[in-house]
């Protein structure tokens, strides 16, 4: 599991949670394909998480960036259904366990072939399954955030022509990035094998839809 952060973000994030309104837009509403807000903008290079670097040494094919692929996918009803089904299915399929209990180490990223894992492992499996379903890997980015408990957390950001959406093991609802209540730290780069900063973008709206 990503280590907890104890710095100024804690105070800022707590304040955001206090002032956040209870009402949010459910990205999976019955009105049809959702529309997110403005895209999450990168703001320069960032250091890759150590456990990501280790994962890439073991499985380099999961980490390569193919710039021939589109940066964003064109979202349609069929693709949205696939994304929702994959997210919900893996949230049910994987048993949440810490890396300490699973591997006996503080932090390890892996594809959970044994049915157990923590947040990063959910993300890697979702990305793999969606890539196998034909979704461009370049448009699916492992993303590090600070969650409502002021802890490091990993989610999958899918970049689309309707905005950037977040697949999360904490909830089945797939929300626009700006409606998760998270602080966005960094994500995979779309231009090289590496990571890019998200500048600590803060999202004050806390989603009301839980698992």
Protein architecture, described:
The model is unreliable at 3-31 and 207-211 (pLDDT under 50). The radius of gyration is 16 Å and the shape is globular. By secondary structure, the protein is of the alpha+beta class. Helices cover 27% and strands 23% of the residues. The chain has one domain (8-202): C8orf32 fold (Roll). The strands form 2 sheets. Strands 1-9-8-4-5-6-7 form a 7-stranded antiparallel sheet. Strands 2-3 form a two-stranded parallel sheet. The chain contains 5 helices and 9 strands, in the order αβααβαβαββββββ. The chain has helices spanning 8-19, 50-58, 77-93, 99-103, 119-132; strands at 45-46, 95-96, 116-117, 140-146, 152-160, 163-168, 171-176, 183-188, 195-202.
If classified by CATH, what would the architecture be?
A: Roll
| Helix count from the secondary structure assignment | 5
Q: How are the strands of the largest sheet arranged?
A: 1-9-8-4-5-6-7
Q: What's the shape?
A: globular
| Overall helicity | 25-40%
Integer average pLDDT:
84
What oligomerization state is this entry in? single chain
Domains (count): 1
Number of strands: 9
CATH class categorisation: Alpha Beta
Q: SSE order in H/E notation?
A: HEHHEHEHEEEEEE
Gist?
The protein is of the alpha+beta class. The chain contains 5 helices and 9 strands; from the N terminus they run αβααβαβαββββββ. α3 packs antiparallel against α5.
